[in-house]
Structures are given as structure tokens and as C-alpha cells.
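call fold(seq) -> C-alpha cells
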Amino acid sequence: MPSLRLALAQFDFPVGAVAANAARVGDLMAQAREGGASLVVFPELTLSGYPPEDLLLRPSFLAACQCELNALAGATNGVAALVGHPHSEGEVYNAASLLRGGRIELTTHKQALPNYGVFDDKRYFRKGHDSAVALIDGVRVGILICEDIWQPEPAARAAAAGAELIVVINASPWDDAKQVEREQVLTARATETGCAVIYLNLIGGQDEVVYDGGSLLVNGDGSVVARAPNFVDAMLWAEFDSETRTLRAENWPSVPDATHEATLYAALVRGIRDYIEKNGFAGVLLGLSGGIDSALTLALAVDALGPERVTAVMMPTRYTSQLSLDGARVQAEQLGVDYHIINIEPMVDAFLGALAPAFAGKPADTTEENLQSRTRGVTLMALSNKHGRLLLATGNKSEMAVGYATLYGDMCGAYAPLKDVYKTEVYRLSRWRNALAARLGEPESIPSAVIDRPPSAELRDNQTDQDSLPPYDELDAILARFIEGEQSQAEIAAQGFHADTVRRVVRLVLLNEFKRRQAAPGPRVTTRAFGRERRYPITSGWR
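ret:
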């Protein structure tokens, strides 16, 4: 019975980099040919990158993608290639083309267009209606695109057309529940159709989404054969046996640590690195407060870019504790980053002096606290402009949810690595990173004293976060139920939370939508991220 050798290109193909993406496809086609593959497979919308958004409305962009596809077809020379691209035929389709024998042998269109979460396919594409099947080395190969495999009908159509093996190309972003869901879906499709399934996924950070790779091989009986590592670029080799409808992985990279914390940390690192690299910044800058959020952000930035491309700035006032000063200094020294201390007390005093006549007769309140934060924001933005280093905001999802953040203060920044990471997760990630450092024989990435201290904004004497918020364990549990779970206040209270606390938290979430609209983008790592995915009206009577 026939067998088929495949190469699966689990690589990053950046949005808009059409010529560079095509050049990389050409190089990988040559590598696949040299490795004896009959078919090399590339991710969804390889040539345009995913998601290209309104670039798809530009005829010149679509024409460039088609031009590069034609050139690649002419260079196949002994290897077939399955390439994702936008396809314009008066209307635009999300397409996959089989290139073989110097020509475009067939083009098929995505049938199921997702329009939920981060996806907006129906804005740009028309749907396809048929599942293509191609004969390659005697094997009948069905071709599907991403969401097609999440619906039963496209796979059923491929099987009815004689497919033995289904190859599905994807641009599926990572979140903390995605891998389990993928395996369940692929197992179901294989079991329903009797077809083995190859699932190839894009990798890399793109603005607010991060693609993890995590490609999969599934036998015709639904058993998972191999899992590619998350966030690792790799050419993956596979063999398909037509008689048994089984797949075999050949020397796939191993996954040294597949825990949730390890994968989430890798997602955040990849998000930072790709955002900085793809936007051409020399490095990053951040305010290092001696608290856990900025400490974790610093560790992530160093792991993403190296210490030589990271600058940390401590900006103390009279309320800054010695613990904060020591923690920031120790971490900066241990990680080897460029470190500065800028005392902002004189700047704050100058602001207060200038504002004194306008503030006359008004008692001190959060205005004076926020002024400290905003002075830090001005200082950091000045340094960012002067040195050409992108400013990272360090706030977490818990704070952004309830508005425990200052507009034009600690919210300043062009990218927010922890924007979709709850505070309790910040603690878990910090402890995980230190445990990794211990295994590697390295100093702590985040000083234990910073992790163990009570969280505080240090904007007044003896301040802690819990003066204004419920304990983070309780707060995050309520937030996750309200945001990710879409549960009502009554449903949350029924699970043992005090009704007044639930009402207060929900009120804060709804009131602070206006702040989140002005927040920096950050990597989506949960099932309901603020910004691209969770979009609530600012002006609303719903409570």
C-alpha cells in the first residue's frame, strides 16, 4: 500500500511581509525536497500572514500575494507544496493551493468562517463550499483550513470524496484551554471519518495574539501520535501509512516542561520578542518598582531579548520603601540590565506647587497619588523617546479589570505583557521562573522578598492593594467567573462569594471600560482577553 512522506513547516510568517514570507517558503521547499518529502505543508495564510485584517481590502496587497504564489509554483521542482494565501476572484477567499509540477494544481477555499473571539473572517472572506482531495504518491489527501476541522461537515465531505488522510492548515492562537480542545476536536473528526489527521499550526506573536504551533498527528482511530512543542519553530517530518491509516513522527523536538506555567511563560516571552522584533525597536524600557508585576515583566523581557536590550528605571518618592529599593536593585544586578534610579520627588513637588492655587480648599485624595504615577509615566516616556526603546506597561489583568491603574501613569506603555494575566497567575509564574533558575543553577530571576511582600502601589504611607480591593485569590475567582465564564452576579454569589463583594467587583469592571480602551495591547493568553476579544460599550446603562 502507498505511503507518504511529509514535511510540516511550523514557522512564523509575519503579517504583511509577503516577499519575505515567500522567500522563506522557497527555502523550506528546498529543505523538504532534500529531506525526501513528497509534500511540504505551510500554515493558514502563509503569504499574507495572519490576521492581515484590512490589508485584505487593498488590491495591491492581494496582487502581491498572487504574484509570489505564481513564482513559488514555478519553483516546486520535485516537491509538492500546500500553501495558505488570500485568493481574489472578484471576491476574496481564505485559500490553500497545492503547488506541484511547476503550476498551481488546485486551490480550495475555507468553508467555515469563524466570527467569534479574536476572529473576524466574515468581514473579509467569502466561504468555500467543497473539500478538495488530491492524489499524492498514491495517497488521497483531503485539504482543510483551520475552522473547517472544528465543524463535522468539511471533514465528512473530504472523506466522502475518498480522503484517507486529512491535512488541515491553521492559524490558531494559543490560550490556556486551547490544546485540550484541539485534541478533542481532532480525535472526533478522525473517529467520525476514519481518516488520519495532520494539524499544522502557525507560530509567533502578532499584536494581541500569540500562535503556539503545537502541531499534532492523529491516527485514523482517533489516537494522538505526536505533539509538537509549543512556541518552537521547527520543520516536522512525518510518514503516513495508507494501509493502516497511521502516522509516524520522525525526530520531533521534545517538550522539556509542558506544565501550564511553562507554556504560559513561553507565550509571554514569544509575544514580547516578536512585538519588539517585528516593529523594529532596539530594546525595551520599563519602570521597576520593587513590586511583583514589574519584576516579572523584567524577567520576561530579559528572557525574550537578552539583558543588553533591556533598561529598568526605579523612580522613588518619600513613600518608596527600602524593601522596594533593595528588591529592584538586586533584581537589576542579577539580571544584568541597564539600571537607573531617578528620584521624582522634586518633580512631584513642582507639580503640586504649580497646582496649589487651583487645589486651594480641597483635601488631599487620590489626585495626589495619581500625580506620582503620572510623573513616572512622563519620565518613562521621555526616556523611551530619547533612547528609542519601547516602553512596557507592567499592569496585570486583575488591575485592568477593576481599574486599579492610572491613566497616563502606570498605564503608559506601548505593549503590556501581563495585560491578560491575573494577579494570582503572576505569583505562580514568578515562583515557576525562580524554580527554573534553581534547576539551572542560576540566581533567582525575581527576588523572593519581592514575591513574598504584601502588594502595594506605595503612593501613600502604609498602603497595600487590599486597602482598595478584595484579596487577590477572591478577586480573581470572581473576575474569572464574570469575564471568562460570563456568569451573572447572582450565579457568582451562589458559589459562596459575598453578594456585596460581587456587586462591587462587577461595578468596577463595568465602570472602567473607558480605561481599558486606552490601554496598550498585550498578548492574549486566556479565553476572554480585554481589547480584541472582549469588547463592551463604554457608555451603557447595563449593570
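DSSP finds 17 helices and 19 strands in the chain.
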